[in-house]
Amino acid sequence: MTEVALITGCSRGGIGDALAQEFYHKGVRVFATARDLSKVQHLKAMGLDTLQLDVTSDDSIQNAVRYVERETGGELNYLVNNAGMGYLTPLLDADLTLAKKLFDTNFWSVLAMVKAFSPLIIAAKGKIINIGAVTGVMTQAYWGINCSCKAALHMIGDTLRLELAPFGVQVVTVITGTVNTPFFENQAKYLDVPENSRYRSLQSQITYSGSAEEWRPWTEPFEFAAGVVANALKKNSKVWYWRGANTFLTWFAVTFLPYAFLDFKWLQMSGLNTLRN
């Protein structure tokens, strides 16, 4: 029987796009989802199933559950929670409405998806794969909202792994490093530092052109996806799977280096060591 995967956030050029294609090439039936179906037409042309899905909408999620249940007979082998957005700002300047929207998309939607699709996943004794990030294990100045979302996502994955084990469901948390996607370009519109910000003098440190070139080195999406899918298809997957540029350095730093040293380096790299009262 053909296995089935549903992947959120599959817009062209992103991680979800690459994951969808990799699962498909491995013989898995893929439901590639996005809020805007025009961004996944290339996947439909390849033969993948495409489905409109807004992970922050209960109605949209329930519609997706009913559709997948009807199409598959009630089983889902892989639920890949990839949809997300970013927000770069000093925490003192954070727009809390936007910050809450970030948590809705990056964190609460994952729990909503798991709850909704759990009958299908349990029926298949399947796997939940949450796309986390290195920012969830080591903070970075000005990325505090993102870091908090990803740290929470990692914890929910660890908890689900325990609570779903009796039902034969595995939960994988992918610790994602730097991957070359449109994510970086999409952040440029959120980078204005307010005139009255205590960090105004550091605007050049906080903002960037929106070009991914500034984030090298990186891993290409299809290289990233190949590893993630290979781990997913194993009988017993690694429960924390590190993949992408800078993951080894992050693991080494948080495992062996003292916080005082890490804080010192981040203060230097972010320009915060130049601020004075």
UniProtKB/TrEMBL annotation:
Record-stated family: Belongs to the short-chain dehydrogenases/reductases (SDR) family.
Membrane-traversing stretches: 240-262
SUPFAM superfamilies: NAD(P)-binding Rossmann-fold domains (SSF51735)
GO molecular function: acylglycerone-phosphate reductase (NADP+) activity; triacylglycerol lipase activity
GO biological process: phosphatidic acid biosynthetic process; triglyceride catabolic process
GO cellular component term, pick one: endoplasmic reticulum
Protein name (Swiss-Prot/TrEMBL): NAD(P)-binding protein
Domain of life: Eukaryota
Keywords attached to this entry: Membrane, Oxidoreductase, Transmembrane, Transmembrane helix
UniProt entry tagged with the keyword Transmembrane: yes
Native source species: Hyaloscypha hepaticicola
Gene3D superfamilies: NAD(P)-binding Rossmann-like Domain (3.40.50.720)
Keyword flag Oxidoreductase: yes
CDD domains registered for this protein in UniProt: 17beta-HSD-like_SDR_c
Alphabetized PANTHER family for the sequence: NADPH-DEPENDENT 1-ACYLDIHYDROXYACETONE PHOSPHATE REDUCTASE (PTHR44169), SHORT-CHAIN DEHYDROGENASE SRDE (PTHR44169:SF3)
